[in-house]
Amino acid sequence: MLNHVEIIGLLGSSIISIAFIPQTCLVIKTGKTKDISMIFVALNLTASSLMLYFGIYTRIVPIIISNSSVFINNMIIAVIKVKNRIQKCKIASTDGEV
User: Fold this and answer.
1) pLDDT at 62 over 70
2) Helix (H, G, I), strand (E, B) or coil at 2
3) Which of 24, 63, 66, 73 has minimal CB crowding within 10 Å?
4) C-alpha angle with apex 67: 58 to 54, nearest 5 degrees?
């Protein structure tokens, strides 16, 4: 049976996991990433991967849950952001051609 501290940890990790879903869904739906800082995404990816390693090493389930979700959501946003940047560069390079 879970004690109150474990329940609080699981609730907190669930809320963190859920918090990124609306932003990720919006990015997937609209493809718009202009207003999302790549530094923010990179820092989140770095922090969540480090915390995921720590959570796995120490076997702390709430840390594993929340950081797995944060990592996956930020990776999706990062991939779309990079695709948008590549597409923008391609469009800019073809605008100069006749």
Assistant:
1) yes
2) coil
3) 24
4) 25
